[in-house]
Amino acid sequence: MRAAENGTWLCNGTVVDGTGRPPFTGNVLLAGDEIKAVSASVDEVAGRDRIDCTGLTIVPGFIDIHTHSDVSFLHEPGAGSKVAQGVTTEVIGNCGFSPFPVARSRRDALEEFITGIGFPRQRVWWDDLAGFAEAVTASGPVMNVVPLVGHGALRIACTGSADVHLDRADLERLATSLGKSLEQGAFGMSSGLTYVPSKFANLDELVRLGRVLAEHDAVYATHARASPGTEPFEEAIAVCRAAAVKLQFSHVALNDPKMWRRAPEVVALFRAAADQGLDVRYDVYPYHASASALTQYLPGWLQESGEAGIREQLSSGRLYDRARRELSRGLFGTIPWDWSRVVFSFVDPGRPELAGQSVAQAVESLDTGPEELCLDFCARYGNRVQVVLFYRDEADVEFFLSDPLSIIGSDGSAMTEDAPGKPHPRNFGAHARLIERYVRARSVVDLPTAVHKSTLAAAERLGLIDRGRIAAGTKADIAVLDLAAVRERSTWTDPCRYAEGVRHVWINGRQVVADGRRTGARAGRFLLRGR
Fold first, then answer.
1. pTM (predicted TM-score)
2. Under the phi-then-psi rule, with left for phi > 0, alpha for psi from -120 to 50, and beta for the rest, what region is 388?
């Protein structure tokens, strides 16, 4: 469905415009791909095409600042888990992962690397961001896509996956490659400092690349190291200070039980940096559990040569014993394992019975040890073993959500209801959960603040000047909510279920959800910075 040539009015709705200001009753005119007018007067809409929004809430389409939908739209262009929540824009390329740039001699390594974000292996036939943008555009994505370039992908293209010393020439190759992606339209760079090869970067490397980002006024988004205490936050702020770059700290969380309930201390670090004039923000998703490929938690040396290297090295008794000893030291080598908190969400298409089982449950039924089981599965199935980890405290989640510096990101992907396994509910419900649980039920934030964190705050952080708010001249990315009916249907045991309560969604002026049903319109655009 399209807005009529002379426009379509959304009438008599409660408008929450994305700025954070109080709601007001108003009318919004959509024409072409833009919002043409916002009016409080019903007289102006007489005789026009109209949709009655009485009792409904009109908001800007949500901008998910932290996603892993990099290949979602190549596998399934109409992936509905996000539009069902009113999300209209996905920011990809997070945690050091991106499907570009590509060195032809290391194409296989990149293809294997990006399976770590939870999708089947994707053939990479492009060479750079420009080629990837063409591929996604040709697929006809249902929603907008905003790219970051991943530091891990940069490393693979320029120097490979090994833990090697980078000399000045290597650093300049990385900087040049980053600059090319930025010139082609990337909005920034992400790092994934618990993942190979991004984890091998030292402070000097991150600062050098941060300076390239600063020259382009682009953002540095970091999945930080799993260092003790407040060290991960301090390192990220140190890069921000030394490079004078905009810092977006990714999916802020406290995973070490020794750090639980210390969110105020972490927020104080960010606020102190902001008070010193540094440009710092962070994103958060509204869950007390994380998710990732199980291979992330293997010793770094074991991951350097990819999945084949894991298999080869674990075939050696000496290296197997070393890997088992190091894995037994704990999560990231420091946090004691509680295997009942580590739950398989997907273990290769041939092992569906394990989805939803904890490692503790699996080892009991398979009569083995937890370290042995993890090493065996990583050797057999590589990055296709996905886990959910319940290593967070709800009080910290609420504190981060309530802080003015936080922005909402799901850390999930656009999926369909027939996705395999039992993926983290964040893929299907993060923005619905924010409204249902943290606005309506718990009053952690009010509605204008929640909408601001999900729209204009993200747009301004990225430099999307024409999205994220309801105002004349901005793009017509709009969601209309039945606020009392918005709810997350995804659960830990039955996650692949679309959210409810979003009545209508427009993306670039085309209606993709009408009366709660997807229209089939493929209205998304691959957005490039400065284009």
1. 0.96
2. beta
